[in-house]
Amino acid sequence: MNASELTQYIPFLIPVVIIQLGLVIAALLDLIRRERTRGPKWAWALVIVLVNFIGPILYFVVGRKDE
Predict the structure, then answer these.
(1) Domains: count for the chain
(2) CA dihedral 19, 20, 23, 27 (to 10 degrees)
(3) 41-50 vs 10-33: helix axis angle to the nearest 10?
(4) What pLDDT shows up at residue 26?
(5) Which of 6, 24, 36, 52 is deepest in the core (most CB within 10 A)?
(6) Is residue 1 part of a domain?
(7) Looking at residue 67, what is its pLDDT?
(8) How far apart are CA 9 and CA 58, in angstroms?
(9) Cβ atoms of 56 and 26 closer than 8 Å
């Protein structure tokens, strides 16, 4: 694959990157503000940052503990 073939994918990758960054930022902000979670906060922070797309979604579905 040469450079011109790779540049045709950039318009599709930009929204994906923006969505990923938005999810990570939203999940980390919620994690910081929330008093209690299911499991240690440091572990959820690692999952959010290191597991692309699925990490923040897992936190929102499983990690949040409603009071």
Answers:
(1) 1
(2) -170
(3) 170
(4) 96
(5) 24
(6) no
(7) 62
(8) 28
(9) yes
- SS3 for the chain is CCHHHHHCCHHHHHHHHHHHHHHHHHHHHHHHHCCCECCCHHHHHHHHHHCCCHHHHHHHHHHECCC
On whether the CB atoms of residues 56 and 48 are closer than 8 A, the answer is yes
Q: Give residue for tokens 């929102």.
A: 60
pLDDT at 1: 67
- Mean pLDDT for back-to-back runs of 10 residues, the chain (67 residues): 80 92 95 92 94 90 81
Report the pLDDT value the prediction gives residue 22, as an integer from 0 to 100. Answer: 95
Domain range for 38 is 12-63
